[in-house]
């Protein structure tokens, strides 16, 4: 009897175009096959002869450096046999020497890079480019990241462009951002981060562990991660945080150098973390909170110190209120905590506080923040304080040569406003505050607050600056459990607004309105100040103050103008590397009743727009022209102008050096575009100069076959 001719594999076809279409992974710019877990994919195996009943054919999937069966890092799958660790394989079709195999990975398989080898008898075949990337699967009902709504998956997993909301509660504006999760090397950068995270195989199954690890690795603080944070105003040794328009350049540079990229601030960290999560298959969105508290002592209070002119003092505050702060929500079912807390989970990669010894934050169930269940993992106390702290104002005065602190106001509803994210499938802002908080003053809010307070330790009202700890307690009584807006005897109320557009180079014209609702004659002392500050609340310049005593016959109101000449601020504006906001603070005191009230408002400068001229549609691989037009409508020269433009699937990031643009001058920059991908694509442009940091715009184009 002749010996059986041994069975050998002559080739493996990963059927990339069919598999990636079915797995919603056809966007990734990568040679290898990318599939999602818990969903079948097919591979075609070519053999040296027809398969017989006695032949043994095995697919082996290995993950990590040294795959072993007993560690679960090597999966050995035989067609039609029982499943192995939740993986299944079946013979879909046999034709002569060809076998079509269908492989279904477990819906809770570890995500990462697998190597496929095919074993026949004692022969092992290693296909070239035999790497398969396995991702989380929001389309699979048994995956913990399952998301039922298709439009939401389209936005939170597949959309590679978006908007991050910044500015201030008074003037929110949108900053376009290219996430670019499908661009070259981005998936590899994410896989490198997964390996670097040292997560165990079991932890790689769970998006809670993965998202927590990624929140640590997107900042460079303790693990030489992706981005180095810098809020100093000095960025000569890197790229200013204002100069990025997307995550792609950052992740590509990081993957190439394996060194932290310089520099990031919160929206950059959030933009990159959003890219990483979407790239790995976890639905994710960028979330902006206006007037976000950074409460270092978890006492749900942020103290703001003012001098007797009403100007905010940086030096005394440990805590801060950021004009805005951006983090992310990732979508998942939490299997590690009691039921009822699945859905959106807050994660934050901006290095603010250490959690378990590392700069990481989350995942924190958004529902836990709303319900006051701040004991739940991870970092719920910190996130709760960011959106629920009180703001207490103190005036510091010298009395007999010593600093004394006088409380001039408490705001209980000022923190955590206008929580915003981009709408699903549309370019507009949607307010999601009600997902994080019950309506102010509602019964639910009161219960939630009592719950949270029972796990936190809100302090009595002593000022908490380093200098203040020596002074006696200002009042022995602690705050009531649910403080209300201060009700004054006279119904004193303050409003701050701008009366003319705030264009750089023009006078800043603002007004403070004092209202009194109680009948009678009242004398009001008003002090007002105007300062420039970074979005982190850090004051950069004092521009001017007013001090007036007015008499009002209630009920009535009076508008007091506050005007700042261009010379008072233009020099500072031109010398700063960051975008600044105009901070106006007002303190009013009614002489007859001692009622005191403090109010602050931050406003942003207003800029002329960039216009983009290009066709509404174009066809694949056919060039079209795109022009960027900017007219300097301001009364100042814009120095050292740079135009940054990027169009994913159309052209790579490009910078135009435009020099100085005189008032009234029009600049036109053109670029030839070659679309390489189908569907709705976006072009993003940003203009930066010494005087102005943040003019950006975006325009969509539809690419057809």
From TrEMBL:
Protein family membership: Belongs to the transglutaminase superfamily. Transglutaminase family.
Residue span, Transglutaminase-like domain: 258-351
Keyword Calcium: yes
Cofactor names: Ca(2+)
Family matches, as Gene3D superfamilies: Immunoglobulins, Transglutaminase-like
Pfam families in UniProt: Transglut_C (PF00927), Transglut_core (PF01841), Transglut_N (PF00868)
Binding site for Ca(2+): 388, 390, 440, 445
Swiss-Prot/TrEMBL keywords: Acyltransferase, Calcium, Metal-binding, Transferase
UniProt-listed Enzyme Commission number(s): 2.3.2.13
Source organism per UniProt: Nesospiza acunhae
Gene (name only): Tgm4
KW Transferase (keyword) present: yes
Record: active site: 266, 325, 348
Signal peptide start and end residues: none
Enzyme class of the recorded protein, top EC level: transferase
Cofactor binding note from Swiss-Prot or TrEMBL: Binds 1 Ca(2+) ion per subunit.
Protein name: protein-glutamine gamma-glutamyltransferase
């Amino acid at each position: 009897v002749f010996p059986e001719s041994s069975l050998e594999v002559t080739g493996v076809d990963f059927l990339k175009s069919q598999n990636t279409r079915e797995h919603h992974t056809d966007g990734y710019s990568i040679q290898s096959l990318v599939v999602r877990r818990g969903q079948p994919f097919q591979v075609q195996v070519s053999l040296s002869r027809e398969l017989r009943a006695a032949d043994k054919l095995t697919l082996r999937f290995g993950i990590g450096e040294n795959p072993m069966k007993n560690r679960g890092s090597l999966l050995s799958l035989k067609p039609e046999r029982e499943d192995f660790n939740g993986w299944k394989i079946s013979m879909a079709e046999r034709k002569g020497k060809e076998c079509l195999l269908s492989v279904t990975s477990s819906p809770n398989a570890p995500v990462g890079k697998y190597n496929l080898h095919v074993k026949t008898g004692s022969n092992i075949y290693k296909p070239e480019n035999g790497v398969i990337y396995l991702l989380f699967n929001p389309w699979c009902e048994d995956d913990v990241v399952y998301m039922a709504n298709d439009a939401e998956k389209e936005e939170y997993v597949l959309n590679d462009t978006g908007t991050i909301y910044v500015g201030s509660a008074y003037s929110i504006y949108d900053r376009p951002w290219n996430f670019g999760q499908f661009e070259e090397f981005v998936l590899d950068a994410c896989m490198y981060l997964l390996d670097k995270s040292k997560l165990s195989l079991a932890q790689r199954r769970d998006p809670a562990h993965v998202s927590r690890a990624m929140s640590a690795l997107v900042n460079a603080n303790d693990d030489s991660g992706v981005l180095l944070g810098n809020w100093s105003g000095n960025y000569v040794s890197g790229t200013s945080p204002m100069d990025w328009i997307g995550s792609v350049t950052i992740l590509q540079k990081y993957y190439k150098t394996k060194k932290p990229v310089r520099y990031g601030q919160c929206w950059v960290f959030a933009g990159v973390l959003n890219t990483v999560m979407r790239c790995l298959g976890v639905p994710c969105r960028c979330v902006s909170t206006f007037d976000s508290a950074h409460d270092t002592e978890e006492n749900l209070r942020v103290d703001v110190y003012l001098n007797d002119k009403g100007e905010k003092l940086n030096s005394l505050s440990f805590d801060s209120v950021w004009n805005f702060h951006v983090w992310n929500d990732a979508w998942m079912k939490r299997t590690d905590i009691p039921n009822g807390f699945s859905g959106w989970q807050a994660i934050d990669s901006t290095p603010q506080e250490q959690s378990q010894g590392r700069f990481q934050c989350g995942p924190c169930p958004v529902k836990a923040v709303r319900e006051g269940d701040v004991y739940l993992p991870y970092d719920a106390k910190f996130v709760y304080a960011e959106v629920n702290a009180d703001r207490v104002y103190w005036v510091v005065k010298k009395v007999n040569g010593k600093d004394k602190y006088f409380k001039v106001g408490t705001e209980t509803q000022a923190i955590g406003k206008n929580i915003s994210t981009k709408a699903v499938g549309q370019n507009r802002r949607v307010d999601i505050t009600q997902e994080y908080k019950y309506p102010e003053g509602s019964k639910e809010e009161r219960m939630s607050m009592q719950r949270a307070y029972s796990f936190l330790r809100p302090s009595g009202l002593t000022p908490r600056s380093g200098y203040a700890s020596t002074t006696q307690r200002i009042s022995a009584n602690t705050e009531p459990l649910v403080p209300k807006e201060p009700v004054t005897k006279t119904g004193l109320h303050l409003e701050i607004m701008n009366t003319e557009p705030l264009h750089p180079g023009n006078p800043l014209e603002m007004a403070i309105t004092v209202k009194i609702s109680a009948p009678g004659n009242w004398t009001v002392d008003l002090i007002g100040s105007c300062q420039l500050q970074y979005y982190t609340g850090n004051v950069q310049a004092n521009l001017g103050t007013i001090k007036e005593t007015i008499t009002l016959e209630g009920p009535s109101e009076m508008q007091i103008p506050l005007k700042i000449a261009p010379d008072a601020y233009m020099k500072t504006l031109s010398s700063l590397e960051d975008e600044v906001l105009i901070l106006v603070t007002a303190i009013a005191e009614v002489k007859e009743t001692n009622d005191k009230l403090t109010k602050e408002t931050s406003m942003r400068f207003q800029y002329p727009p960039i216009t983009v001229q290009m066709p509404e549609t174009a066809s694949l691989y056919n060039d079209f022209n795109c022009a960027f037009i900017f007219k300097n409508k301001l009364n100042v020269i814009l120095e050292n102008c740079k135009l940054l433009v990027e169009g994913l699937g159309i052209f790579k990031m490009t910078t135009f050096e435009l020099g100085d643009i005189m008032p009234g001058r029009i600049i036109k920059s053109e670029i030839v575009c070659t679309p390489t991908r189908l569907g709705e694509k976006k072009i993003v442009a940003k203009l930066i100069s010494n005087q102005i940091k943040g003019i950006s715009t975006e325009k969509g184009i539809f690419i057809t076959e």
